[in-house]
Amino acid sequence: LNMECNLIIESFLTSNFSITMDSIINAEFSAATLLISFGALIGRTTPLQMCLIAIAESAFYAINKILIVFGMFQAEDVGGTLTIHMFGAFFWSSCVLCTRSTGEGVSIEQYCF
């Protein structure tokens, strides 16, 4: 879900609507940021919330990467390591703050489809 959303959003931001190997690799980088964020959110959120977070994270990652990191700052990040891990960590911390519970955890029945 994250990769498909990232392909669409990055296509609109770069005005390049062709799917190439480079665009697929960039979408996999977006999925890597999602995996970094999901590690801290497991047990705090429901599967529906995880899907919404995946869609939002793909959009914000594309905006961050194209407009801010490579646009305004014109940074060079070989392999995308710094961009991926920093964005994943900051998005993770903002999601944790937004999904704070009032003492009740997510029960195992909520994860059963």
Could you say which overall geometry the principal axes of the C-alpha atoms support?
globular
- The sequence of SSEs as H and E is HHHH
- Report the biggest beta sheet as strand number plus sense, adding barrel if it closes: none
Query: What Rg do the Cα atoms give?
Result: 15 Å
According to DSSP, the number of beta strands is: 0
Structure in words:
This protein is mainly α and 113 residues long. The relative contact order is 0.17. The protein is built from 4 helices and no strands.
Characteristics:
113 residues, mainly alpha
How are the SSEs placed, and which strands pair?
Elements: H1 2-14, H2 21-41, H3 47-72, H4 81-98
Helix pairs in contact: 1-2, 1-3, 2-3, 2-4, 3-4
